[in-house]
Amino acid sequence: DAGVTQSPTHLIKTRGQQVxxxxxxxxxxxxxxxxxxxxxxxxQFIFQYYEKEERGRGNFPDxxxxxxxxxxxxxxxxxxxxLGDSALYLCASSLIGGRGSSYNSPLHFGNxxxxxxx
Amino acid sequence: xxxxTQLDSHVSVSEGTPVLLRCNYSSSYSPxxxxxxQHPNKxxxxxxxxxxxxxxxxxxxxxxxxxxxxxxxxxxxxxSAHMSDAAEYFCVVSDQGSTxxxxxxxxxxxxx
Lengths: 118, 112
Prior knowledge:
The complex is a heterodimer.
Chain A: E1 5-7, E2 10-13, E3 19-24, E4 31-37, E5 44-50, E6 53-57, E7 64-68, E8 74-78, E9 87-94, H1 101-104, E10 108-109, E11 113-117
Parallel strand pairs in A: 2-11
Antiparallel strand pairs in A: 1-3, 3-8, 4-5, 4-9, 5-6, 7-8, 9-10, 9-11
Chain B: E1 3-6, E2 10-14, E3 19-21, E4 23-26, E5 32-38, E6 44-50, E7 56-58, E8 64-68, E9 73-78, E10 87-94, E11 101-102, E12 106-111
Parallel strand pairs in B: 2-12
Antiparallel strand pairs in B: 1-4, 3-9, 5-6, 5-10, 7-8, 8-9, 10-11, 10-12
């Protein structure tokens, strides 16, 4: 079975531009989460979507938005890019989402999209 | 609020010697705890998770971790390191919600 797939794998953007990252979950998984991993740090939670509804949001500015489609794939959008947005963006899928799901439904991560903002 | 502290940013061992990666956590609730591994240019792979059924948790590739509530620790161990174990390891806590809080990571270096 295919794992979590993310596209593109690498991306270079200029400050002020907008970017869209895409994620396809493991077949049968209905929840998708997004994490940002800055070089030298652990991943930080951005969003979780479950059954096409936002179930959690981390401490990120409104420039960050996401959505989940009927086939459970997801997009992460970042507007007005800053140099500090340069990071590895990780998508993770799980069978379920919402409160308590981290215990019963572990996350499966994709290989990430490496975003460089110049 | 939940947080994780990984006590070592780098750990170096020789192949065949034991591995110890240290983690302390803070949580307002009875936490779920995990260890993930990240190989270069790869995503994160779940090594093991604490289920509250047993304090000693066995994971993949010979790793195990012991939950010690009195010490708020969840250290990761392996009896004998392999070259393929060289990677970055993350201790992770979840306060029964749906989101994970990661530590800053420990880079494990394995020399021949």
